[in-house]
UniProtKB/TrEMBL annotation:
This is YecA family protein. It comes from the Bacteria. InterPro entries: YgfB-like (IPR011978), YgfB-like_sf (IPR036255).
């Protein structure tokens, strides 16, 4: 198991050589969704659009180590550490990018996420992430959220606890 090197990952994911994957913040969001949500085995292929064999082995190992660390933190009830400040209350921020990655991963496994038993709670817990992702740009309610700076700050602060709740929802017996 390689030691997690976020600088190496950041340099690669935010660099020009990353032709197929998401940027650093969006990759973290993607991995968080994989960690907190229902099991999804095709995550690596989806993360790199089926081109993971063209990504350096060291980067794949680092991404797997990052996912393992996120899962370990959740299992140990330590929560998820963000590799950037989440107080940036804007869709044009690292948190916005992170949210896009999270939503991408969630919708790749949509049927498993949106089960009748979880749907109502899931909508509530993912609302802040959906707002920051910038999707539903045509939705007047989402736009009104995005124009309210104080509300955006409050939504940003909810995300870490909501991730813990999502993890418990999918990873503890009912």
């Amino acid at each position: 198991m390689s030691t997690l090197n976020l600088d190496l990952l950041s340099d690669y994911l935010d660099g020009d050589q990353n032709e197929y994957g998401l940027d650093f913040a969006a990759t973290h969001g993607f991995l968080c969704a994989i960690a907190v949500g229902p099991q999804f085995d095709q995550w690596l292929s989806e993360l790199f659009e089926g081109n993971q064999k063209k990504v350096p082995t060291a980067i794949i190992e680092q991404i797997s180590a990052w996912l393992d660390q996120i899962r370990q933190n959740l299992a140990n009830e330590e929560g998820i550490e963000f590799p950037f400040e989440i107080e940036e209350a804007d869709t044009e921020s690292s948190l916005g990018d992170w949210s896009v990655g999270f939503v991408d991963a969630m919708f790749l496994n949509e049927d498993a996420w949106f089960t009748p038993e979880h749907e109502e709670q899931l909508v509530d817990l993912t609302l802040p992430i959906m707002v920051f992702s910038g999707i539903d740009e045509e939705d007047p309610q989402m736009e009104s959220f995005r124009r309210n700076g104080q509300l955006m700050d409050e939504l940003a602060e909810e995300i870490p606890d909501n991730l813990n709740e999502l993890y418990l929802m999918y990873h503890t017996p009912h």
